[in-house]
Amino acid sequence: MGPAVREWEPPVTDEVIRTEGLTKVYPGDIRAVDGLDLSVGRGEIFGLLGPNGAGKTTTAGMLTTRVVPTSGTACVGGIDVVAHPVAAKQVIGVVPQTNTLDRSLSVYENLYFHGRFFGMSARTAKAQAQRRLEQFRLSDRAAQPVMALSGGMAQRLMVARAIMHRPATVFLDEPTAGLDPQSRLALWEVLGELHREGQTILLTTHYMEEADALCDRLAIIDHGRLLALGTPEELKASTGADTIVTVQTRPDDLDRLTQVLGREVPGAQQALRVDPHVVVQVRGADRIVPQVFAAAERAGIDITDVSVAEPSLETVFINLTGKDLRE
What we know:
- This protein is an alpha/beta fold.
- It folds into 2 domains: about 15-235, P-loop containing nucleotide triphosphate hydrolases (Rossmann fold, 3-Layer(aba) Sandwich); about 240-310, 2-Layer Sandwich (Alpha-Beta Plaits), CATH 3.30.70.980.
- About 35% of the residues lie in helices and about 30% in strands.
- It contains 11 helices and 14 strands.
- Strand 9 and strand 10 (about 225-230) form a beta hairpin.
- Helix 3 packs across helix 4 (about 120-135).
- The two termini are about 30 Å apart.
- The model is unreliable at about 1-15 (pLDDT under 50).
């Protein structure tokens, strides 16, 4: 089962997030984010996709006032987050990687008091809390302490809390990291509902399936730099291939097999060594597996495993960096 999260296509007209030359340099000349230019439209789910250490969390931190940029500018909801951090906090909702729920409060109280903190009347905060509990499938847990929640439920509650004050943008940092598949799907469905309501969402993730399923557009980043930007479909089409063949052999034969398959497999656009495999991008897949075995056999190389798939965001990342997103 997969949630239909992109049924409604938002107009990318009103700009909610803009960065220009956004840069963060840590001591030791470590450039966590390097000259990032982004524009996110109202109602989009926008993703920052990249491996751990790519600069995704630092970027989200600068946009949410938690990290001060070294240079460049960042605006959210028309507010300069560096010049006016207090005002910026009023128009953003944040769901961090760690559980920041108040453990001394019940599930309902975490929502109610958040609303009150952001200036809601008691009546409005109560109504909004009850509405979000229903929307996020937590009504039956309202009176329970947050310690009683599973990881997936706690994550849903943090999202519900983040949108209580109707922020211009919700930032989610690796929202499904550590969740089991069922909890991940449940959160995807909730984010899909928010999307259809017109909520702008920026999420960071290193899960290519998550970026593909959720995002209207995404930026692939690595070592703090923007490598590619577009819809998942546009990025996958940019590979120029329609079939990806992943081949495994002995480590000593990987380089030679890469050369052989890139040269001899019909329709091969390119072959790359991505340890411990060779990844071949092919246009046209007629009898591709026998062709791969035949080419390897002619070269005297034994193949231990072969898999065939369509191009993915993983393929795009490999093309851009020469390495696997999971590395």
